Amino acid sequence: MYDGTVGVLGGLEAMRSLKESGFVPRRSIETLIFTSEEPTRFGIGCIGSRLLGGVIDPAAADQLHDRLAETDPTAPEGLTLRDVRTAAGFTGSLATVKLPADYYHAWVELHIEQGPLLERDGRASQNEEIVLGIVTNIAAPASYRYIIEGFGGHAGALLMPDRSDALCAAAELILAVERHTLAANAASHGVDSVATVGTVAAHPGAVNSVPSRVTLMLDIRDTNVARRDATMNALHADIREIEARRHVAITEDSINADIPARSDQHILDTLEDVCKQEAVPYKKMVSRAYHDSNFMARVAPIAMLFIPCRAGVSHRPDEYATPGSIALGTRILARTLAVLANE
Amino acid sequence: MYDGTVGVLGGLEAMRSLKESGFVPRRSIETLIFTSEEPTRFGIGCIGSRLLGGVIDPAAADQLHDRLAETDPTAPEGLTLRDVRTAAGFTGSLATVKLPADYYHAWVELHIEQGPLLERDGRASQNEEIVLGIVTNIAAPASYRYIIEGFGGHAGALLMPDRSDALCAAAELILAVERHTLAANAASHGVDSVATVGTVAAHPGAVNSVPSRVTLMLDIRDTNVARRDATMNALHADIREIEARRHVAITEDSINADIPARSDQHILDTLEDVCKQEAVPYKKMVSRAYHDSNFMARVAPIAMLFIPCRAGVSHRPDEYATPGSIALGTRILARTLAVLANE
User: Distance (Å) from the C-alpha of residue A335 to the closest C-alpha of chain B?
Assistant: First the structure.
């Protein structure tokens, strides 16, 4: 209810407030509202900003395979993004969506932090103030789908020496992801590497059947692309070893492997100046979550403004940001837009 | 198409052949046809033979929770076996189902092996004969459901040191099951311990969410209950260690933990005699799969007759037994029934 929504409603409210105050900008101000920022039924997220930023080929985007039937047995199979958008009435060409370079003078996105740092800093401050986040970088995200093919059979009759259990192989892969990511952090004395196996499905998926096939998805992010690549190389070596020892076949599909985005120094300075003028405490920080700003950075100078969210919790029903935090973030956004629009 | 079905059709065919041949038995012969031998929507298998054998309390059976809604979003929630059977027109009391002890003089079940041993022996024999299996014991099966509760969050923003990833904990549990089972086999220089994690589900199940909860099912079987218990004790020690180190909570629900069944010596001798008279090669063997005979053993002397199935494959679409094997098994079954029915 807050991830994304705070930026949409905050952006609309910032523009309404500026208008109500009688402010007349030198440059026009637009609010862009994206759907499908999260990984979609088409396998990737940020489809809107990828198209606007020219990060995805429009013809390739139209051919993205609709995976809805994988989880919804009533959904038709074999559809593409083009089929689905056409059926929904969106019949134009995607080739016209990409924006020219430097189309916007500046791009600012308001968002909840989705992590615990701002709330911690606020709690540690003298008057338990709300601390905002000024985002200097967005970590480079990548995601992969793995299919592990073993040999299935009856859980009683297929004896242990004859097994190539796909789920045991998957378990080793899951732990290898964690081990290499912890090693990357340890080597750099940091916390900037994160990796997650968030989905797993075992086939045939019966208590009395040895899994013959497991599908899982990996999400890996880093502020440093070279370190992310090194982690993936270490994982690939483990995968070859697991394949040979367990007599399984593991295939990897790259879903996306994006480059990190850096915020524009001038917009960062403007956000800092506005926070100082308003006496609002702030923290410069890295966004470890993935945002439309990551792709808008291809066609505009960008920055992001974070507000705290309760316990850093996100992508869960108990995700929450206080009305006070949302109001404060919206105020700083509005004042920053006013400065940038008058340049 | 063969697991179970061969026994049903073979049993009917054996009786029809005996009748057609003009055979008049001293004792009546019955064919019992069970549905739901596999683990059902009510969480356990062999509901029919458990009730006939008095292994499950009829009132408890009626209160078994219908889990269909867990996999079929269109199914109603909160139903019991009693609700479902009543709606299907089966309105009688389950309390009358249990058979008296020694109700049958003898019980013989025909089944595919669901393992590779008979096919291997047949291939190794001089004329590639069909080798049948005479089952001396049914391994003791047990199954458990585990729920692993960790702490979820955004796959980018929840940093590695702050995680209690339920799927990483589940991966360790899956590998611990395998490790302890291999150790039990190594210690006894045998292959009689098998254990399988056949199902796994991660919540919330999104590529960009750290799993907060994982549910999995374990199936463990052994010809020796003490060895099975020792494996479970070793697993429990690992579970406590995983909980403490990873700050997760792991709960175990016992779905069933049955005792092994032994075949009756007289029926075994009869099966052997008939095979010898018919010059059919046979192998005495352990059934590592779980059968209705396991529970019929409570009210009757039992034995089982196995036929080979291709590559030992079962619980898969490519499960297969040759018409020749099915015919041979049915012939030996019919002749054995004739001997036993005339005693």
Answer: 27
Of B38, B170, B198, the CB nearest to A210: B198
**pLDDT score for A65:** 92
Q: Is A84 on the interface with B (CB under 8 A)?
A: no
* Residue B296: burial class (beta carbons within 10 Å; 0-12, 13-18, 19+): buried
- Rg of chain B in Å (alpha carbons): 23
Q: Quote the pTM value.
A: 0.75
B156·A182 Cβ contact <8 A:
no
- Integer Cα distance of B76 and B70 in angstroms: 10
Complex ipTM more than 0.85, yes or no: no
For residue B40, the model assigns a pLDDT of 81
Question: Could you give the CA distance from residue A334 to residue A339 in angstroms, rounded to a whole number?
Answer: 9
| Helix H or strand E encompassing B220 | strand B213-222
Q: Per-residue pLDDT tens for B52-82? A: 999 999 999 999 999 888 777 788 888 999 9
Q: Determine whether B318 is exposed, middle or buried from the number of CB atoms within 10 Å of its CB (0-12, 13-18, 19+).
A: exposed
Give the whole-angstrom CA distance, residue B46 versus residue B100: 18
Q: Which tens digits make up the pLDDT trace of A34-49? A: 988 887 889 888 999 9
Q: Cβ distance A268 to A106 under 8 Å? A: no
